[in-house]
Amino acid sequence: MRKIRKPKLAVWKFASCDGCQLSLLDCEDELLSVVNKIDIAYFLEASRNVVRGPYDISLVEGSVTTQHDAERIQNIRKISKLLITIGACATAGGIQSLRNFKDVKDFISLVYANPQYIETLDKSTPIASHVRVDYELRGCPINKRQLLEIISAYLNERKPNTPSHSVCIECKRRGTVCVMVSQGIPCLGPVTHAGCNAICPTYCRGCYGCYGPKETPNTSSLSEKFSNSGLNNDSIMRMFRTFNACAEPFRKESEAHEIEEAGSNKPEYST
Amino acid sequence: MKSRTIKVDYLARVEGEGALYVKIKDNTVVDIKFKIFEPPRFFEAFLRGRTYNEAPDITARICGICPIAYQMSSVHAMEDAFGVAVDGQLRALRRLIYCGEWIESHVLHVYMLHAPDFLGYPDAIQMAKDHPDIVQRGLQLKKAGNDLVALLGGREIHPINVRVGGFYKVPTRQELAPVAEKLKWARDAALETVRWTATLHFPDFEQDYEFVALRHPEEYPFNEGRLVSNKGLDISVHDYDNHFIEEHVQHSNALHSVQKGRGSYFVGPLARYNLNFDKLSPLAQETARSVGLSNVCRNPFQSIIIRSVEVLYACDEALRIIEQYEKPDKPALEIKPHAAVGYGCTEAPRGILYHRYRIDDEGVILDAQIVPPTSQNQKTIENDLWQFIPQHIKLPNDQLTLQCEQAIRNYDPCISCATHFLKLTIDRV
User: Fold this and answer.
1) CB contact B260 to A (< 8 Å)
2) How far is CA B267 from the centre of its chain?
3) Is A266 helix (H, G, I), strand (E, B) or coil?
């Protein structure tokens, strides 16, 4: 009998905290079953074995911040049948895209005494700004259940079930009382993509948007609500400017509340 | 003249992107570079202008493996700035969540990153084919740590429940009960882990290190204590900047943290163990002794046993805290920000993690400094390689490469953490 070839999985890292790829190793109950169905062909955080491409699935973590990485992603696309970005860095540029609102040269000289040694691009950009992406998994970090769902959907040749509605729906499903209505806590839930299962409101705090914008979010209406409840422009700007600061709807909303600093060295943002 | 090089372009089974380059001429090592080429992310720069209460969520993103460490160092630094002391059950809950992180991070390293070196496998998945029970035990033990972090923090990676002053929500005794059941199993599994790791084969390699760790008068250190060493250092965390400095070393492209006038030092499980053995629980001490360890261990290859002892301690300590737990009245103390400088240093799984913030009257961060454990160990890692390679220079390249990698993995280096604070060039081999 001919042995059926297992699909080959590769895990790639760009600028990131390693947390999203760690989610795969955090599937403690499922990991050994997953590797029965899939060959982990390239996953440096877990193995020194490297199986040459092409790969059936590539999971890409992190954002592009160097010229070298901008070239590397092109090659990864070429050797990957299916390319899936995992997490806010790969999908929206991540927390490090806060540099995109400033002059990166100022940032370098703040952190490093010899700025000439630092090779970095002006902006931190998501993978989709460079190559075609077949599927995006949201979150800072991703939800490991969604990661398993996407792998399982691939193996069973079906569409992954990762809803794009808001965190509000997840609160309703869990039976969590709305923290904004009942306690007046500012919450990004109404404009944030589902996937975490509404953890923050369940722990009595407002959602801080780590899954990025949901489909068609009404960010300006939510800002108006924040404003009416006493939040100033600076606070609203900072709420939208965190782990998905450069996801288009959040970027626009944060810029709408930005107070121009006198003599600031802010470059024009272009996507 | 016969010359050879050992090159590992992408080090595997470490967190982040690092490389190793060794040049040997006529059986003499002439160059060693433990390189870090992980791209910088500039955390210290973009923390400026954020408010004090954003620091725990933002700095957590420096590392997906030890986010609690970043949250703990940042909240303690802020509380130091504003003159607030979190004590009682809230303080205990912070120790409890840190126990969870030590368990998940250490067990990941012991079973999935380090053990395959000792047993000759490329990874834990291959190891599972021959040793399914061992790998399964590791995965379940790791899960016990993750479950604890998830219960107290909301999720395993980048938990959402830690805040300056305490937590957003605190658990009830009933909510902790199922975790305690799992931790009882985990404590037994940790004991087995110590016994198992002690049977591995260790190269004979001891150096005269200066170990640096926190020391607290009553407990094994997590969040508080003075910074001490086995060579006479004994300072308050406030004095960190007077004693430690980041130095630019020509042959490495990264900044190395050194003690002023004293050179390299060693942080992490070995340092904590050597400086605080007497503060381990009786069970952890007894188990360490039963596998032949004394109260001092200078062989970094044996760090795998010490990590296992710390996992055992963390299970034991977590059970003690849960046993004595009573739900506090309020989940957090009130914070009134004012202009100040705050210092925080806690014991991340990989060693001391130092944060310093300058805050204005509105609670806005004016500047931030963060020194993670791996940048402090970097010079010691290179020193180890300078000592270790000559002893094994006769080995063929593939075996020597593997041994060098293992010597680096002794430190469980977290390159993602280290990079944002290191000077580097991208100079690929």
Assistant:
1) no
2) 8
3) coil
- The verdict on a CB contact (< 8 Å) between A26 and B156 is yes
ipTM over 0.90: yes
Burial of A257 (0-12, 13-18, 19+ CB in 10 A): buried
* Cβ within 8 Å, pair B125-A199: no
What per-residue confidence (pLDDT) applies to B1? 54
Question: Does A25 contact B154 at a Cβ distance shorter than 8 Å?
Answer: no
Q: Are B97 and B322 in contact (CB under 8 A)?
A: no
- Closest by Cα among B85, B57, B50, B39 to B368: B50
Residue of A nearest to B423 (CA): A112
Per CB-CB distance under 8 Å, the chain A contacts of B123 are 40, 46-49
Given the structure tokens 């834990």, which residue do they identify? B124
Cβ pairs bridging A and B (under 8 Å): 184
Bond before A217 cis per omega within 30 degrees: no
| Locus of tokens 């040269």 | A105
The span from the CA of A186 to the CA of A227, in Å, is 10
Nearest CA to B300 out of B257, B276, B271, B280 is that of B271
Which pLDDT belongs to residue A21?
Answer: 96
Q: Are strands B234-235 and B244-248 parallel, antiparallel or unpaired?
A: unpaired
B425, closest residue in chain A (CA to CA): A117
**Where do the domains of chain B lie, and which CATH numbers do they carry?**
3-210+261-418 (1.10.645.10)
3-state SS assignment for residue B274:
helix
CA–CA distance, B352 with B342 (Å, rounded to integer): 16
Question: pLDDT, tens digit, for every residue of A169-218?
Answer: 999 999 999 999 999 999 999 999 999 999 999 999 999 999 999 999 99
Counting as low any pLDDT under 50, the low residues of chain B are: 250-253, 420-429
pTM of the model: 0.94
Cβ-nearest to A199 among B12, B140, B160? B160
What is the C-alpha separation between A40 and A61, in angstroms, rounded?
Answer: 16
Q: Which of B13, B42, B58, B428 to mutate to test the interface with A (most CBs of A within 10 A)?
A: B42
- For the record, the structure tokens of B428 come out as 């690929």
CATH annotation of A8-155: 3.40.50.700
Q: Where are the domains of chain A?
A: 8-155, 167-263
Q: For an interface test with B, give the residue of A9, A11, A18 to mutate (most B CBs within 10 A).
A: A18
Name the residue facing A23 among B44, B62, B157 (closest C-beta). Answer: B157
Work out the angle at residue B61's Cα, subtended by the Cα atoms of residues B55 and B62, and round it to the nearest 5 degrees: 95
Average pLDDT, integer, range A51-77: 96
Give the chain A residue whose CA is nearest to the CA of B144: A28
Residue with tokens 């050797």: A79
Residue A253 has phi, psi (to 5 degrees) of -65, -40
Q: Report the range of poorest mean pLDDT among A58-67, A91-100, A258-267, B215-224.
A: A258-267
Higher-confidence position of A5 and B71: B71
Q: Which of A70-84, A249-263, B189-203, B268-282 has the lowest average pLDDT?
A: A249-263
B residues 372-411 near A, CB within 8 Å?
A: 405
Residue B41 confidence (pLDDT) = 82
Tokens of A250: 């959040």
